[in-house]
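Cont'd.
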Amino acid sequence: MVEAVTIQRPRRWDAPFSEDMDQAEVDRILALEPFRDMDRDRFPESLPLAGIIANDTRLVRYQDGDIIMREGDYGNSAFLVVNGQVRVLLPPGLPETMLGRAQTAKKGLMQALAQLWRNRPYAEVRGAYSAEQSGGTASRAEGAHQARIFLQDVPAILDNYRSATLAAADMFGEIAALGRTQRTATVFSDGPSELLEIRWQGLRDIRRRVDDFRRHVDRLYRERSLASHLQATPMFQHLDEATIARIADETLFETYGDFDWQTQYQRHRDESFNRRLAEEPVIVAEGDYPDGLLLVRAGFARVSQMVNNGHRTVRYIGRGAVFGMAEIIQNWHRDNSDAGGGGAEEQDRTTALQATLRGLGYVDILRVPTAVIEEFVLPTLSAQALADYGQLDDARIGFELRHEDKGAGHTKMDSGILEFLVEHRYINGTATMLVDLDRCTRCDECVLACARAHDNNPRFNRHGRRHDHYMVANACMHCMDPVCMIGCPTGAIHRASPGGQVVINDTTCIGCATCAGSCPYDNIRMVEVRDGNGAFIRDTNTNAPIAKATKCDLCLDQPGGPACQRACPHDALKRVDMQDLSDLGRWLNR
Amino acid sequence: MTFAKRRWRNGFITLLAGAALVAWYSAYDVALYQASFLTGWLLLGAVLILALYNGRKKFSMLPMGTAATWLQVHIYLGLLAVLIFALHIDWQMPNGILDSVLALFFVTAAGSGMFGLYISRRYARMLTRRSEEVVLERIPQFIAALRQEAEAVVLASATETGSSTIADFYGNKLSAYFSGPRNTWLHVRGSRRASFALTTELKTMTRYLNEQEMLHADRLIALVERKDQLDYVYALQSLLKAWLFVHIPTTYGLIALALLHLLLVYSFGGAV
Ligand code: HEM
């Protein structure tokens, strides 16, 4: 008797990217470049290339002028041109308004003041939605759940802006998709085109198994952004271009954790601490030999040390942070001081990593081998810099954070609050609303001020999870990793320039609730909008009320900045950039 | 800056200003000028600046400094104003009717301010320690819901056990307790006497219950405790709001009377 072979189907294939990828389509795609030349044997039986095509890709047709991706958007898929051609706009690219984004100008003093009497008596009143506001672009519905923003005058755009053409078999968007960074260019369809959209899970699996593809992606990244990332790292800042290029050549790329961390997080957030910790992938462990300097390219990582039988969070680090430098410096000093010594004794005295680094959600790591650091970086650092970077994380010191600014002394951070902020991923925020309940008299001035600045609609809820006497209120945190921005069909939710706040263009928002569903913190609210008389605005076809996504915009258009924080008389409320640990520490230790 | 440091700094500045003021006042007095004109104008200026804080709150959309900074200025200038006031009235209550009423308004405004500051700091902590976050305006709704639950428990106990002990107790002691916020004055003073007494009575009553009745009584006790929590929050949050209804109206009364006082002084006081 032959036993049936069962395999565990990758969970993500429970929900394929598209229902329309039938066998004929899959075969057609497999016959195209670059899939044609991929070695099928490199894929395990449980994860065949045909399966990836069937489940992790979809075919999308675009019309002339349709915007495929916008500069500055976050996306989690890449595109392959199947038929037709597309245009990539070269710098400086299109103006913001053409991309379906709102231009936010600060209100003048009089306009600000006028909010006192101009604010409307009904909730969520909107003026007429006019196409005027998005200069040169318009939107149209495409199928049941899709909407497209398209450029109205393609020839004029081609005349006025520089662009490059991509044709069949060309791929684009893979760097931003895999690195979870912003799209670097706008791409639109030049004439009708057919594209294969590959979601990141498929990309990742192909990259793992197809050397050519990996080399291609890595080369693109090395060419385009690695050097600038390295250059922005404090300990490399003084190095010349040639040295940076040498370091870039030796740098390894690693990714940990799940790209869809927000769904995982939502599913697991009520489990025990140890269960969740066990699910966080270990990047390097306490006691390991420091074989490289780790740079966080995207995402967050937890730094923890063993205490008795548990792990105590010492710190968390995010984009741009480094890990392991102190140990590397210590070992280098030792090697230099007793060059003659050796043997087993020396082995004993090697400084191992003092802490474990775990991926929180999705983390993208650059690993610069220790030998490279020793050759190119350490000899060029000043004694002072070596001393500063060489400070080890020492459990006995406790949770003291070293201040970057001199003379500020030490700021202790209670481990409980640290665990709380990490546990609930509040560390993602650049403007997390913290309320000190020991100071808060519950007067609601913050809510009132917010309402006054937003046409009488408060954009946050003075409510949220508590730890000790701190509360994280339900207000948009303007995340480092804004999962809400992934999958917005019209690009209405975007980062404002130059501040980088996450804002929603009310005009181009189609009310699909994708962002509200993705926000792991439940900080985006869908509302039904009204006209000036308080009547719901309805869809001309379906008669259903028009919905819009709303959230805190950090008072982008107000002359004074976030009204909530300024309105609190008792110093109880602060919008905190969670990456600025010393600022947070100071606030917590007032 | 820590709160303690800020308190020291602002306190020190206020003390210096106070000392300078007393020195100035004495010099003025010695020089045989009428020092009460100096203190009078300073006092009016200070009161007007103190009152402007109300405006800052209304005009939160204008970039006029944070409310927290304003409150700091308000508190310490308020304290300084008390000194100016004392100098102005020469440390004794005035005699005339208008002047007495005016002084009373000042004392009430300043006194309520200090009281408000005290409870703002103290109640914030008390609320954090002993309660969930509840919005004041919704507490009556929550209480009504608790009352419904309690009545359902009482009804169930009567029909299921055939005994009226719990129902009687509810009728005598609890129906009034559940009909709205109770014991407000005790709660604001931090006293738990009333709830303690009620719990004791409940416990006494349960001595005569059988197991089946006990189940209902336990549920009722839990509801009483939740109600007590809500009463507590209601009392504290209400007072946190209510004191401003003394502080703000007296401010405006004070300003009106002060202007009248000024007019009279310049008309008949010989300030030429
Ligand atoms: C006679 C002098 C004073 C006058 C005319 C005055 C006037 C005012 C006014 C108009 C407000 C605005 C209330 C609002 O709009 O919500 C206020 C608030 C306040 N005042 Fe005074 N005040 C005086 C003295 C003081 C003193 C001596 C203190 C305490 C040391 C004080 C503490 C406060 C506090 C804590 C608030 C409310 C803070 C808040 O929750 O926003 N005041 N005062």
